[in-house]
Specification:
The chain has two domains: 53 residues, no CATH class; 107 residues, 2-Layer Sandwich (Enolase-like, domain 1), CATH 3.30.390. It is 30% helix and 19% strand. A five-stranded antiparallel beta sheet has the order 1-2-5-4-3.
């Protein structure tokens, strides 16, 4: 067991990360790497950093990919957010049709009060890459209204971001 600085609670000379640490972070390789950097920094500079797990995406690499980051609609409502949910069947969008993909959809959870993304759930081709954009949005908290004004490169799947919101 470790404290918030990833330092062992039974032996302060020991720090742990990843599978060796019992943290609230999801059991994913990138999380273990991130925790390792936090633990190393705390070992070298004293306890000053804590891991921030907000915006950690996960992907099931099926065909097409299924990705998730942030909250489910039910989690957002249970946490007291005034959440709006936008579900969109994207299978008919050009970015999917041009590669012959027939199945694709997104569900985005947004806080009405702050206009920030709380969660994103994507099923589609190249959406494993797109989930990282949503992860960044959850981490940095830009307004959805601002994200919609972005002029994207085209015709890649990322160009659909504004329409997904």
């Amino acid at each position: 067991m470790v404290n918030q600085y990833l330092q062992s609670v039974s032996n302060p000379a020991v720090y742990a990360a990843g599978d060796a640490a019992d943290t609230i972070g999801p059991p994913l390789t990138p999380v273990a790497v991130f925790e390792g950097k936090v633990a190393a920094s705390n070992m070298l500079k004293g306890n000053h950093k804590t891991p921030d797990y907000r915006g950690v995406p996960s992907v099931v690499f099926t065909i097409p990919a299924l990705g998730r980051v942030g909250m489910l609609e039910s989690e957002a409502r249970e946490a007291g957010y005034d959440a709006r949910v936008k579900f969109t069947d994207t299978s008919g969008w050009f970015s999917n049709l041009r590669i012959g993909e027939r199945y694709a959809a997104v569900k985005i959870v947004v806080d009405n009060t702050s206009d920030e993304i709380l969660g994103a759930h994507l099923f589609g081709p190249d959406y494993a890459e797109l989930i990282n954009i949503f992860a960044l949005a959850i981490k940095l908290r830009p307004k959805v209204s601002g994200l919609k004004t972005m002029v994207p490169a085209y015709p890649i799947v990322g160009s659909d971001l504004g329409s997904m919101l």
